[in-house]
Records
---
Amino acid sequence: MSNAHPKLDLCELTIRYGEGPAVARNISLGIARNSIHAFIGPAGSGKTSILRTINLLSIDVDGATVTGRVLLDGQNVLEATTNARAELRRKLGMAFATPQPLPRSIYENLVFGPRLAGVRGKAVLDGLVESSLRAAQLWDEVKDRLTHSALALSGGQQQRLCIARIIALEPEVILLDEPCSGLDPISTLKIEQMMQSLKSRFTWIIVTNNTKQAARVSDNTAFFLLGDLIENDTTDKLFTAPVDTRTADYIEGRFG
Amino acid sequence: MSAAARRRLITPRQSQFCARVILWAMMAATLAVLVFIVLFVVKRGLAHVSWEFLTGAPSLSGKAGGVLPMIVGTLAVTALGVALATPLGVGTAIYLTEYTREGRITKIIRFGAECLAGVPSIIFGLFGFVFFVLVLGFGWSILAGGLTLAFMILPTVIRTSEEAIKSVPPSYREVALSLGASKWESIVKVVLPSAMPGILTGVILGVGRSISETAAVIFTSGSSLSKVIPTSLFDGTRTLAVHFYQLAREGISADKAYATATVLVLAILIINVTAYAIMSRFMKRYR
């Protein structure tokens, strides 16, 4: 499944908060370049914590203690200095379970990241706004109201805006934390189509509670349960011939 | 319907109606008192507010002439106090909310600020007099008055800023970080703009307290009746509130006292309206 040099390589990753038990234990997992990798599992299985550890939010925001390695093209992300973290997060874009547009215009949302990265010049920024919105398949819906508040968009549009905002930073990996959990089926479909169309440009990891979504959209799927990685395989294999009975039980809806 | 429900003295509809009436009456009473006070002052004072009064110097201990030196002195002392307290207060609030975890130290700082907020202003005046006027040798001056006012309004600015910053959704910080902002950038570019209306409320409360303060400034800026407009931070000044106090207490001139009070009330009104107008223009970008 994963090629010889995975884009992202999690090695013996263990995450805990404070003195509590580990929420993810000894996770080793490769994410292939230009693939869509789904993380599935019931609530409390550690998948969101793993996702938030990849871009160091769990450490910087939630105060998690992490051991192990997260290798991005062979470089350990966890060893990044405070100053290198901003640069790293530009490579590891993230969208959250509830769409999180910032309270400003659509245009300002999109140029927020690039401006921080030092991109200047109206023409450059305008071009970036259009190309990212086109990539996120949102351009036609919002091109006439770029100066309007992003908060006025529908939930599905807001989530695509958030993904466009990530794309504007030209990341290498895009992390999606249950991006469709609050969206209707049509908005969900649009996001899934967008992921497929952009697979050649980015490597995607999607955490989802919806096993059907994982089956539809992903190339590989990892199944987590109570902080352990139970099974990781190509999506076809995992959904048709799972090795572990717990995986089979979960994807057939017997629990979770 | 059960027996218990039928035995109720008043129906939900009636209690709803009562609540509405009582709450409306409370609102109306508050508003009435406010309007009454303002009208009471303005009605007596407005007739004596003239261009000469606004632009002239006082004479005959304030029995005649105008209040320009007091207007300038009031604005100078207030501006200095607010200009010092705002960065200090907002900085403290940022530290307390963003750079420390809740613990013993934050509790002590917060408790200290709350105690400070409850200290009578005359105590601040006494402190300012001893420390700034005498020990540091500033004399009765705008500088001593401004510094004293800054300490007086600091707790208010800290507390309101803290609440405003806390009310910014944590997700905004995460989004900023995930888009490559440093912690400081996320605070400056996302948290503070969103918290700005709340911070401004604290600052405006501070302006109101400073501009109308008597006890703290009478000890620190003095009450000498200067005919000239103060031009240096080391000049003493008599603020409008102090001027009003002297005119009324010494029975110098009731008309001039009410005129001074009117100027004070209108000044507060103008400052507040201007501040909110600027804020709403600024906030248009963050909706």
Note: Chain A touches chain B through 30 residues (CB under 8 Å).
---
Amino acid sequence: MGMLESILLTIATAATPLLIAAIGELVVERSGVLNLGVEGMMIMGAVTGFGVALTTGSPWLGVFAAILVGAVFSLLFGFLTLTLVTNQVATGLALTLLGLGISGMAGEAFVGQPGLRLARLDIPGLSDLPVVGRLLFGQDPIFYISIALTAAVAYFLFRTRAGLTLRSVGDNHTSAHALGIKVIAIRYMAVMFGGACAGLAGAYLSLVYTPQWVENMTAGRGWIALALVVFASWRPWRVLAGAYLFGGVSIGQLHAQAFGVGIPSQLLSSLPYLATVVVLVIISRNRRLTMVNTPASLGRPFVPDR
Amino acid sequence: MKKALVSFAAAAAVLSLGTMGAMAQDPTKVCAIYVGPIGDYGYSYQHHQGMLDVKEHFGDKVEISYLENVAEGPDAERALERLARSGCKIVFATSFGFMDPTNKVAARFPDVKFEHATGYKREHENVSTYNSKFHEGRYVQGVIAGKMSEKGVAGYIASFPIPEVIMGINAFMLGAQSVNPDFKVKIVWANTWIDPAKEADAAKALIDQGVDIITQHTDSTAPLQVAAERGIKGFGQASDMIKFAPETQLTSIVDDWGPYYIERVQAVIDGSWKQSDVWGGMKEGHVVMAPYTNMPDDVKKLAEETEAKIKSGEFNPFTGPISKQDGSEWLKEGEVAEDSEVLQMNFYIKGIDDKIPN
Amino acid sequence: MRIELVKRPQHSALFSALSPFIALALTLVAGAIMFALLGKNPVQALYLYFIDPLREVWSLHELAIKAAPLILIGVGLSVCFLSNNWNIGAEGQFIVGAIIGSILPVLFPEFQSWIVLPIMLLLGIVGGAAYGSIPALLKVRFNTNEILTSLMLVYVAQLFLDWLVRGPWRNPEGFNFPQTRSFHEFAILPELLPASGRANWGFAFAIIAAIVLWFLLSKTLKGFEIKVLGQSPRAGRFAGFSNARMVFFAFLVSGGLAGLAGISEVSGAIGHLQPSISPGYGFTAIIVAFLGRLNPLGIVAAGLVLALSYLGGEAAQISLGVSDKVARAFQGMLLFFVLASDTLIHYRIRLVGRQAAPAAEAPHGNA
């Protein structure tokens, strides 16, 4: 395996959990709901994935359980913000607190246990191709899911009627409701999709990235995912670009250190954050494009007037 | 509603008085605060294991109590005060950042003994400090790395540029240079004590740049797992991590705080506790090497001999001649570094190409 | 069966007052069940949580210390959120305020005079406001979304502080450990009532800030402008208000108060700079702001409640041996109940039977 290929693989691994969680949150926000609980749902997915894989011996069961738990956990947020119209920002933050607490409790028995790893794909012949072989044909299955998910969400949002409906709910819930669209039901589904994705992203951490359970192991990645949605101005392929940009700069700075460039590591470590800001500043100068893509009802509560 | 609340409060008051009365007579209360969660399987986890050793050793004679995830700052001061007020006889404050809060609270509770890990301030009679010479273990690891690495380049994942980490890097290099004078090390600062994914990324970056052995001064098992995946060897950290990488781990430095904690608690029970500043190493049993595995017999033998020499006190890793990075002389032939000098180490020795990021 | 909300014609004063108690009751019941399931005495656990920390004077002081930064940041954020500016980077503004405010005692320790402390506080405010003005500038000038920029700048501030205290600002007598020199006596924020505990003037600043902002928001034209622009920028423009200037105003106020909280924390409670000076106050304060319904006086109450839940969590850990995770989960639960109970202020809750639902829908319309 060449150095370039290996670096690209490392970047793909770093970007995948961010991408999955961000794609989920993108759908949530496109429906007009701001869920700041990504970190909490992600850590729930991580502990569930790890625990179920360990006890059943099947990493795939772990993945499915994580998706399920992520979705169910997000229902709690959905019930509060959609049915009881609580404040979305505060409820999302509380969800993160709750997730960190519950995952810590649930994971106590798993500390110090080596976990199972989700086997990576290996297509004989193809995965041996130089440079792109492992990258395209020899990665873990969730990597392919993350790409497929991006394509599917892009297609769904902009090429299907259901996608149009979801966007209209996010853009103006009052008119959507007047047209007879079930605003709350659609938002419930979007929130659960976001939870499922966050759960999957968490499972990726504890079953693929680093097969182990450590408290708080998401280490703020849910927050980065949230930022990426904004970075992408709510467009799926831009989320992918953002996740790989962030992953690329993060890995790049580690290489710069190992190479010995003599720049303080704190400065290098802050590069991914600065790079994201700079790129967003450049692309958001197109005011019209941003306006068109921002869900106008984002974060605003909705109660159907009958 | 109001009535219910009043009776609730009364019931609770009776209850808490009851427990306090029972507490007053018997077991010695032993307490600790940890900077991280005990589920980190790293630094705080090992300190908690030490507390569990105390409980196991003394049984019903002690009662242990702790607060985890305590932020360094006013939260620490409050946590320490609360522990002192709750009847703790001895409190272990297990992180450097607890230094000033420990001394402040100690002033207010002269009857409670405070033990602060890795710091240097003992402003009151009831404050002791303690630390472990982990660099002794790193020297042994260096010797093994020097023997095992074919390319003669190790990858070192470091956390933060504090003296403890820097002395570890130097000791590792001295060990490696003792068997391979041209040995090189590549260093990546992760700027975290524990973040498995980031540590894994750092390990991958180092391996991609051609190192064929990995060591770490961060807490998670991730780098070792990456080493296993890439088919190279590595070292564990803080605890024996062989379970995570059975064919990869060469050895691991195990932080064993148990013996010190038991000794200090015994002193409190006996009434013989006195202020001290303990920097224990292999000799005192504070630093333990996990079994030497996955290496040829001659390397294993050399490692065991090195360990034995350090343990007996016959050899100190920081023994001259040693030059600093820029080539200037630090220690003359046969000269042994003062502990005080090692404890504030802020320079690299010759042979390390990196720059300390501060 | 499903739940249906019916909007009240005007918000209910009764439930406005009652909702905290409903939340408390729900928390007590749910908490009792949770602790019973964990095998702990529920009465004792709840007592430790909500009453024990209020029983002793020293503990009340600690409550004030813990609540001060939450309130100070929270009231500032209320201006942001009311005017529809999503500043989630108060943590970074807190840190930069602490850094800039510490310039005098760290770099010029020989300069000792009573004037040092006022200058420090002022610099803290300036530092936080300046850091807050970056997302504001990017938003106004380049149309950059402030959620992303303010959040990313938090990480940058943390790493910058880390570099400072390990590098150029490290205490020369500190054996190369990552701390600045300890602040001299003129640089320490005094305690409010030194005889009984260590609460400092930071808490007084928080209360003053809350009162001033309450007055600003509810009694002045500026307050009206904030709310109008927050609800509808278009309507605001027709009224002659400038949204761009409001963006700066909101970020400067919240950044400045976060900066003041930062320097108060460092100068009052810590006494030097170190790599980590905040256990996430800037983020927790977002919850506090909304918990207090974006009303500065409500935020004071919310800050105290949240601080109490930290102190109570510690008491329960020590006395019952429940873990820190239980404390955190319980905190999340408490927040959920408080948020959910607030729904009653604006809505009546009806349970609608499954079969009856479609038929019942039309007649109950109150549009």
Note: Residues 184 and 307 of chain B are 22 Å apart (CA to CA).
